[in-house]
Amino acid sequence: MTRNNADFHNITFSRRMDDDWIIIEANHPELGKVGTMSLREEDSNKFRTVANVDVPSEYRRKGVATSMWKYAKESGLNPKHDYIEQTDEGKAWAKQVGD
User: In three state form, how does the secondary structure of the chain look?
Assistant: First the structure.
């Protein structure tokens, strides 16, 4: 059964450090982990480049990645897009959420 966006309320976010990476996780109260975003630390520490966004196909187009992006911005992590290495889906998403 296809899920609609209403099924994705109450997602909680957490972050952890893993060497030079910040890993953001999106967790749904019933479904568990529904997404991760990896941010690469930059030398200047002013911005962190989005290196990877992973949302399982059954949870895509539900606002999970965009919510992780907003969480990163609201947390002061200053994410930015990597415009050099992007998939077509990544380019479309980056255009949608902006910088």
Answer: CCCCHHHHCCCEEEEEEECCEEEEEEEECCCEEEEEEEEEECCCCCCEEEEEEECCHHHCCCCHHHHHHHHHHHCCCCEEECCCCCCHHHHHHHHHHCC
What's the pLDDT tens digit per position in 25-74? 999 999 999 999 999 877 666 678 898 999 999 998 888 999 999 999 99
Cα separation, 90 vs 17, whole angstroms:
23
Question: Is 99 within 8 Å of 67 (Cβ atoms)?
Answer: no
Looking at this protein, which amino acid is placed at residue 47?
F
Q: Contact at 8 Å (CB) between 13 and 29?
A: no
Name, in order, each residue with C-beta under 8 angstroms of 90's C-beta and a sequence gap of 6 or more: 53, 81
Domains of the chain: 5-97 (3.40.630.30)
**Locus of tokens 């919510």:** 67
